[in-house]
Design goal:
Length: 199
């Protein structure tokens, strides 16, 4: 997929660009760029091909010859999907900045909080005083702008969900090493890409 510009929110991939391997190429593109709306177009696409690219995250598939009335009817939906992506992208960047400021020791404390471990048990596990754990926990709350453990857990969960959209699956190497530790398990889905309406 060299030469494809990933700076846009919508990527349209036409079958005529590929002499062969259209379905694997679209599937690779959608899995590699989960933060974009992907539209595939082609002629003589089989039902199996359409199902495969949709399961791998392609958002829309149009059969050629293109029906301008149908496309015009779908454009508001595509535009709404792009707006949802923009909103989620802004939220993701805010959360990413909050969690990026945590030190390794604060991340350790955060992970123990997420596991429901008490300050006393965390102190024993990390071989530090309870007061040190309390101070690090306070820093985690301050840096993440959280006023309670409930708010902190909600932010971590939201960050993990948005990270799967904008950084891909948790099993792929992430720019945020701590994310892989904090991500809750993913649930089986028809598509490998998250549903924008549910996050």
């Amino acid at each position: 997929m060299d030469g494809v510009d990933f700076t846009h929110e919508i990527v349209v991939v036409d079958q005529s660009l590929f002499s062969e391997g259209f379905v694997p190429a679209v599937s690779e593109l959608t899995l590699a760029r989960p933060g974009q709306v992907v539209v595939a177009t082609g002629s003589k696409l089989g039902v199996g091909d359409v199902v495969e690219v949709m399961r791998n995250g392609c958002d829309y598939v149009f059969e050629k010859p293109l029906d301008s009335e149908h496309i015009a009817g779908v454009l508001p939906e595509i535009k709404a999907d792009c707006e949802k992506l923009r909103e989620k992208s802004r939220e993701f960047e805010v959360l990413r900045r909050l969690f990026a400021d945590l030190t390794h020791r604060e991340e350790d404390v955060l992970n123990h909080v997420l596991d429901g471990v008490s300050n006393k048990d965390t102190a024993e596990k990390l071989n530090v005083s309870v007061r040190t754990i309390e101070a690090r926990r306070a820093k985690v709350y301050h840096k993440t702008k959280s006023s309670s453990v409930v708010e902190l857990v909600r932010k971590v969960d939201r960050f993990a969900r948005l990270s799967r959209i904008f950084e891909g699956p948790a099993d792929r190497p992430s720019a945020h090493r701590k994310l892989n530790m904090m991500c809750p398990p993913t649930f089986l889905r028809t598509s490998n890409r998250p549903d924008l309406s549910s996050t």
